Amino acid sequence: MTAEHPSTDDLAEAAAGRPLDGLVVLDLTTALAGPYATLLLAGLGATVVKVENPATGGDSSRNNSPYYGPEGLTVARGGDTDMSVSMMGRGRNKRSITLNLKDPRGRDTFLRLARGADVVVENYAAGTADRLGIGYADVCAVNPAVIYTSISGFGAGRPGKAMDSIVQALSGVMFTAGDPGADPVRFGLPVGDLLAPLYAVIGTLAAKTHRDTTGQGQHVDVSMLGALTSLLSTEPFDAFQQVGLPLRTGNEVPRLAPFGIFPAKDGFLALCGPTDTFARGVFRALGRPELIEDEDFATRDGRVRNADRLHAFIEDWSRSLPRAEAVAALAAEGVPAAEVLEPADALRAPAVLEREEVVELGHPEQGPTGLMGPGIPIRFSRSEARLDRPAPHLGEHTAELLARLGGLTEDEIALLRDEGVI
Amino acid sequence: MTAEHPSTDDLAEAAAGRPLDGLVVLDLTTALAGPYATLLLAGLGATVVKVENPATGGDSSRNNSPYYGPEGLTVARGGDTDMSVSMMGRGRNKRSITLNLKDPRGRDTFLRLARGADVVVENYAAGTADRLGIGYADVCAVNPAVIYTSISGFGAGRPGKAMDSIVQALSGVMFTAGDPGADPVRFGLPVGDLLAPLYAVIGTLAAKTHRDTTGQGQHVDVSMLGALTSLLSTEPFDAFQQVGLPLRTGNEVPRLAPFGIFPAKDGFLALCGPTDTFARGVFRALGRPELIEDEDFATRDGRVRNADRLHAFIEDWSRSLPRAEAVAALAAEGVPAAEVLEPADALRAPAVLEREEVVELGHPEQGPTGLMGPGIPIRFSRSEARLDRPAPHLGEHTAELLARLGGLTEDEIALLRDEGVI
């Protein structure tokens, strides 16, 4: 992580050999779902130009507490170079330009940039992009080959306030965790926000393949609710309910017994023993090899019928041991088992760090922060895919990119600046 | 949904105008993570050839209870045409060929097919593909431009039994739901399995773009643990903990109050009021407009400080109302709110059905089943993306595709069949 601002030339060099090298993306997104989509495109090598409103301080994520700066991590913003942790993560490998799109000169400038862009990504509320004159029809009019990707709560043009918890509630996902009959469970990982960007990137790249074949661009439209509900429907919850299997079973799964999360002396462990072989391994690890011959537990049917007793045996055993010791005993018998980790430990596990699936975040001036954030969890044998450049400050690349991508003259840029459009 | 087996010609016709039309994918995957990746590729228009072992009955998902057949939904398999609900969902728009890859003639036949393939996808245990002679090096030797995508638990070549609960445990995700200090929460939606395929499709399509530019194929390597842990690290849980904010807050979020899941007379509702405007809407919906001027609740700082009292006011109000009525009252005041739906209702909501994000599953002979499964949650303005063909029975397309894609003669195919290789 460099402590200097990288120039665009440096970026071009670093991007050589990335899979999406040369792809130009105009990024109109804010908050989480949209910026995560363009973060992936940036890490895969696209030139992502983040368009931010100078009148509002740019992407709302720039104002998410906590911040990082010369004083380290702080709840309130201190000096000018303080950057929100959210932006340090989501802004990496992007360039930032300021442009007030509510001003007709801002819109015209955007459309000049859009003439040379491959992709536009937006996550405005329904109707906003069209009202601003930067919707798919507007961009298509100046660049028919553009791929224009919209991420919304409920589908392009469908109104509704799509906060993560709202999407989770409507998707059914809150009733997949917890004990039968218990309250629904709000999930801390914002799956309502974070699945749509993955499908949006898939859609964008599929449309790129289509364009490479046909020359045609198109509109790609992904909804947060559809993404999460669709993924949920991959599990046959529906069929389970119809044949009388419970939808929720809490931390244990009786129909796969022995199977579940069990308490240890110093935490919890996960154990999965749905086959005869695994179950026998569990009995040996527990020091109860006689259960292998016990008719109540010898077969899968028996174990399912006697799941509560079986899980109680495991709990009696695991409670008395440190979790690492219990996991080691199960692993020695070939049983799939793992410690249940807290996020802080999970993000620092050697496997994910070595593979750069999780990486340390850097601040543009302060360098390494000790805070962890997402890498690109895809490894390519012949390409690089990496988030290795710190997030830009607001508007850091405005003049350079308006000239290079939009063809604006120095005088034009100076005028826009004087008039507060950039 | 047709009640006849579609011929490959029908499939080719239906696939016209799909974004990945013409892309040939050899699918070596089993269970859930791998098959979901190739399901998305199939829905996007790729020709996906599922390679299944005739000696074991093919993909293990074919033996997941419950089944669907002439008797409807059943726990045990009945007749020959019964198909597991898992396969009815995951097998759509794929072709199935049988090939015993442990037999050298099976391997040779596979490599003949691989010469003409664009993509191979596999999710074998570490070392298996190489041992069978169908690893990346083997396929690359006959087809250097191939994109070879591996989905594994912990990364290509890293051993370990990666069941969904094990991956969830190691990712930290189980400590993002539930109350502070409570047990970890196992999530029913298998996020340990289902994120890796999304990144695998992104990686495959990014490698396709790279190949279209450079002519080079490559190995794409995605791990289940890395995919989930990376996605988890998009939220600054790490920074929150360091500034003293709790990682887990259960169903309410005090730092955003009023915000959370609240009980109603007949279920639950989600409510998100983190801004002044939304909070005022909540007070009006509750019939407590005086709180707008109350210094304990007028500002965000006040509401956060008094979050427990504020959330108790909401609960007192919401408990007495049907959830639909409470949501309507909040919506009338512009507050983001929603009923918390059960999966069965969520999968049948008009919005996701109209957009084909969730669709009805069909059985190859029985037709529509009344069971819901995933669509492709991406809409394209100029292409089709749709899962509209029922899953094949085991080996249904063997002879046809060995001839067409592998160039095998009728005699060669007959010999392989006689000797049990196909």
TrEMBL record, chains A, B:
<feature type="region of interest" description="Disordered">
    <location>
        <begin position="53"/>
        <end position="73"/>
    </location>
</feature>
<dbReference type="InterPro" id="IPR003673">
    <property type="entry name" value="CoA-Trfase_fam_III"/>
</dbReference>
<dbReference type="InterPro" id="IPR044855">
    <property type="entry name" value="CoA-Trfase_III_dom3_sf"/>
</dbReference>
<dbReference type="InterPro" id="IPR050483">
    <property type="entry name" value="CoA-transferase_III_domain"/>
</dbReference>
<keyword id="KW-0808">Transferase</keyword>
<protein>
    <submittedName>
        <fullName>L-carnitine dehydratase/bile acid-inducible protein F</fullName>
    </submittedName>
</protein>
<dbReference type="InterPro" id="IPR023606">
    <property type="entry name" value="CoA-Trfase_III_dom_1_sf"/>
</dbReference>
<dbReference type="Pfam" id="PF02515">
    <property type="entry name" value="CoA_transf_3"/>
</dbReference>
<dbReference type="GO" id="GO:0008410">
    <property type="term" value="F:CoA-transferase activity"/>
</dbReference>
